[in-house]
Write a structure and sequence with these properties.
This protein is of the alpha+beta class. Helix content is 23%, strand content 32%. The protein has four helices and twelve strands, in the order E-E-E-E-E-E-E-E-E-E-H-E-H-H-H-E. The strands form four sheets. It has a five-stranded mixed β-sheet, covered by helices on one side. A three-stranded antiparallel β-sheet has the order 4-7-12. Strands 1-2 form a two-stranded antiparallel ribbon. Strand 5 and strand 6 form a beta hairpin. Helix 1 packs parallel to helix 2, helix 1 runs antiparallel to helix 3 and helix 2 packs across helix 3.
Length: 181
């Protein structure tokens, strides 16, 4: 959307994405690298159908917001969460340079149609959905295969599996930089 404010035309962008949680068939048992969220072992999961279980996340980017904000299931949450800030920083650093968003702030609204924090991978579907919406709103191009899943892992290790459908293998990889995990 475009609105005119005084003599300046300001742009507001809004994207909504839906992702499903995943259930591990073979779990990963800890992290080999805590900073890059690289697992000790590979894992396999099945991503649920979004018709049954899903997270719906809407990201709005606007110059009218005073600060970034996060809403989960209708309640405002702290935006200062370390994992959330890591994801925001990684995506913003990759934003399309043609976008003039330095004075824009985000409003993130996320809802689950299943219980949050009940062992159903709500953080995985939540961060997968958030990364998908952020990369769209900031017009980020994936520079290498798996870059977006690597960003999602910074929010929740299992989020890399929720970005894909069906049965998913999260390969621990062998590269020190984690680009093949």
């Amino acid at each position: 959307q475009r609105r005119v404010h005084g003599d300046v035309s300001l742009a507001m962008k809004q994207i909504t994405c839906v992702c499903a949680p995943n259930l591990a068939v073979i779990k990963y048992w800890g992290k080999e690298n805590e900073e890059l969220i690289i697992p000790l072992n590979s894992s396999i999961s099945v991503t649920m159908n979004t018709k049954d279980l899903c997270t719906r996340t809407t990201v709005t980017l606007s110059p009218d917001f005073d600060c970034d904000s996060m809403w989960l299931n209708g309640r405002e949450e702290s935006i200062s969460n370390r994992r959330l800030q890591s994801v925001l920083s990684l995506v913003r650093a990759r934003a399309n340079p043609a976008l003039e968003t330095t004075d824009h702030r985000l409003r993130i609204e996320s809802t689950n149609n299943f219980p949050t924090a009940a062992g159903l991978a709500s953080s995985a579907s939540g961060f997968a959905c958030l990364v998908r919406a952020l990369t769209l709103v900031y017009e980020v191009e994936e520079r290498w295969e798996g870059e977006f899943t690597a960003i999602a892992r910074q929010g929740s290790g299992s989020a890399c599996r929720s970005m894909l459908g069906g049965f998913v293998i999260w390969d621990k990889g062998t590269r020190a930089d984690g680009t093949d995990s």
